[in-house]
Amino acid sequence: MKRKIMVVTAAYGYDQVRAAGGQTAMLPVIAEAGADGVEIRREMLTNAELKTLPTMASAIEIFGLLACYSAPEPLFLEDGNLNPRLPELLLEAQALQALWLKVSLGHFSHSGQFDVLREWLDNSGMELVVENDQTPCGRLQLMQGFNEACQTQNLPISLTFDMGNWLWVGDSPEEAAQHLAPAVGYIHVKAAASHRDSYRAVPPDQAEPRWLALLDKLPADVPRGIEFPLEGQDLTAVTRHYVDLLRKE
Fold it and tell me: Residue 40: enclosing H or E segment and its boundaries?
């Protein structure tokens, strides 16, 4: 079975993508590098582009790529309620013909609104993956609690495991993998290196061995998304190098 590799458009940097003409302009690079799909970032779309998501979906299909859709939105707001924008975001993901919508967890405290969430997901027909982000809401204990509630309620939600983000919130990536691996539906691949008083994302083969070893603790059959900087004169060659690396690791 060929492992699916997605390329997150943000890996090329906002300025580079904008200068190239937007996220659609990166599709030839991603396709020629041999990737299976692209992660489209909502925060990198202009208002005009948001109105033409079906056109972008057609372009993605022409290049033979799969799509996933990432929105910088929490699933739960500070008051603990579901984000009322979720149905709109699910419709956008649907227009993009995405495999799933990715959001962060936000301020989850109880499962009292899971029936509403189930209805929203059923109505959209979209899958939802929830990511550990770089805020306190992305801590392992909270992600565990949410995952356990989803399992208890039999909600069709899986997790995006961002390998590096655990360090930003002071958790162990290896411990997170131990507890969450069975629920992971998508992996954001990146290593994290100390940078000033925080961290920065780096390619896993340019960092300590723990990062490639961490992949062995995660499901082998879920898509892997490249979310570390892809830089160089020949972006296709650079992208191909990491597509090949992550496909065989």
Answer: strand 37-41
Nearest to 111 by CA among 162, 161, 157: 157
Place of tokens 């954001």: 188
| Residue 86 burial class via C-beta count within 10 angstroms: exposed 0-12, middle 13-18, buried 19 and up | buried
Q: Which of 35, 44, 109, 33 is nearest to 70 (CA)?
A: 44
SS3 97: coil
Residue reference for tokens 């992971």:
184
Distance CA 20, CA 13 (A): 11
Asked if 63 and 32 touch (Cβ cutoff 8 Å), the reply is: no
For residue 97, give the nearest of 61, 50, 71 by alpha carbon. Answer: 61
The 10s digit of each residue's pLDDT in 1-37 is 689 999 999 999 999 999 999 999 999 999 999 999 9
Question: What is the structure's pLDDT at 28?
Answer: 98
Return the biggest CA–CA distance within the chain.
51
Cβ atoms of 185 and 160 closer than 8 Å: yes
pLDDT score of 249 more than 80: no
Residue 69 backbone dihedrals phi, psi, to 5 degrees = -125, 125
Q: Is the pTM above the cut of 0.90? A: yes
3-state secondary structure of 35: coil
What ranges in the chain are assigned the alpha helix state H?
A: 14-20, 27-32, 47-50, 53-62, 86-95, 114-124, 140-153, 165-168, 173-180, 210-215, 235-248
